[in-house]
Amino acid sequence: MYNKKAYELGSVRSVIRELFEYGKKRAAEAGADKVYDFSLGNPSVAPPAEVEEAIRDLTTTTEPVKLHGYTSAQGDQGVREAIAEYIRESFGVPMTADYIYMTCGAAAALTITLNALVADKGQNVVVPAPYFPEYKVFVEAAGAEFRVCPMRTEDFSPDMDAMEKAIDSSTAAVIVNSPNNPSGVVYSKECVERICKLLGDKSAEYGHPIYLISDEPYRELVYGGEAPEYIMNHYKNTVVCYSYSKSLSLPGERIGYIAVSPEAVDAREIYLAVMGAGRALGYVCAPSLMQYVVKRCLYLSPDIASYEENRELIYGALTKMGYDCVRPDGAFYLFVAAPGGDSEAFSEKAKEYGILVVPGDGFGAPGYVRISYCVAKKTIENSLPAFEALLKEYK
Ligand code: PLP
């Protein structure tokens, strides 16, 4: 006997992983220079030098028993105080260490938050498309219904009428993600205000708070335009799920945090529920060494110059060829309308040209493909003739 649902999840590899494995195989057969792999969102920029320095310094100057020992379940007190101060200074929110919970990246932050907020099985969590595919897995594992509301294709912002219809008295939370994976879009202030107003109105109508979970692993990856809104400043019942995976290029080190708004309804109880959910899920504590490392790196700005250069290059070249896409302002993704309209068929056809792009179906956006441009600039340059030849097949 075993858990059938877990078996199913474990047996079906994600489309992204499938493509990544295919790319490795094809590179071994045809040569790495014949494969243009845009499948994974793995940062292509090395962690800032200060991260390496902090690791070196900590491992040579700190008592190993402390450095590698357990911290408190919610994270080291000094680390949480430093993060709370950073949030207060950067965003003007009255954050304290008592509302910060250190996690193994955003994925753990999301699963813990969902398990903390979903009160019973009849509840649902509303997610605007396009969305990070793991949300479905996380929401369903927390026992809630995963409810998608469609996007506006002009700018990939949520269709507010559809969101209004999707929310009902059983909605526990809404998840937003800006800068967005897979579209690269950064929600405008007006867009954030509209979402927050709707949630405020719906909470009042149903007589209980509907929480806003803001998934922010790409917060610092923005190009040129305005910094993304800090959602807690617009809506009190917010829980932020943050990660250093992308901002410090540390995805394999598994470090991030949950920040519960101290002004949320039942803020204390929610924080304790976060602690309980983390405990029940067996997290024990986030990696200790990495907690101390990020404490020393809080004010670093990531080096996004190469991502920005890649964005200009690929967006400019593909739109000139005739591909249809919205200019992304953040993250490192471009979401392109699949020529021919069938994203899975297009992704398959692209493989024949050595191009690996992810069909949008798993992101709740059939008809689009995601291109991750966190790759070497040469990969983009070399791929352009292949993109051009591929598009000709549809003309
Ligand atoms: N949320 C989004 C939108 C992501 O794109 C990712 C990873 O790509 C995650 C969460 C998970 O990130 P982490 O590595 O911090 O668990």
Poorly predicted tracts of residues: none
What's the count of strands? 12
CATH class of the largest domain, please? Alpha Beta
Order of helices and strands: HHEHHHEHEHEHEHEEEHHHEHEEEH
What is the overall shape? globular
Domain module tally: 2
Distance between the termini: 53 Å
Strand line-up of the largest beta sheet:
2-8-7-6-5-3-4
Small-molecule binders: pyridoxal-5'-phosphate
- CATH homologous superfamily title of the largest domain: Type I PLP-dependent aspartate aminotransferase-like (Major domain)
CATH architecture assignment name of the largest domain: 3-Layer(aba) Sandwich
Q: Strand-residue fraction?
A: 5-15%
Please tell me how large the radius of gyration is.
21 Å
Give the rounded overall mean pLDDT.
95
Biggest sheet overview: 7 strands, mixed
Count, helices: 14
What structural class is derived from the secondary structure elements? Answer: alpha/beta
Description:
The protein folds into two domains: 4-48 and 303-392, Alpha-Beta Complex (Aspartate Aminotransferase, domain 1), CATH 3.90.1150; 71-296, 3-Layer(aba) Sandwich (Aspartate Aminotransferase, domain 2), CATH 3.40.640. The relative contact order is 0.17. Helices cover 43% and strands 13% of the residues. The strands form three sheets. A seven-stranded mixed beta sheet has the order 2-8-7-6-5-3-4, with helices on both faces. Strands 9-12-11 form a three-stranded antiparallel beta sheet. Helix 6 runs parallel beside helix 7 (134-141). It has helices spanning 4-11, 15-30, 49-61, 64-67, 77-91, 105-117, 134-141, 160-166, 189-206, 267-280, 288-296, 305-321, 343-352, 377-392, and strands at residues 36-37, 100-103, 124-128, 145-149, 171-176, 211-215, 238-243, 256-260, 333-337, 355-356, 358-359, 368-372. With 395 residues, the protein is α/β, with parallel strands linked by helices. It is globular. Strand 5 (171-176), helix 9 (189-206) and strand 6 (211-215) form a beta-alpha-beta unit. Pyridoxal-5'-phosphate binds at residues 41, 105-107, 132, 177, 181, 215, 217, 243, 245, 251, 256. Residues 41, 105-107, 132, 177, 181, 215, 217, 243, 245, 251, 256 line the site of pyridoxal-5'-phosphate (PLP).
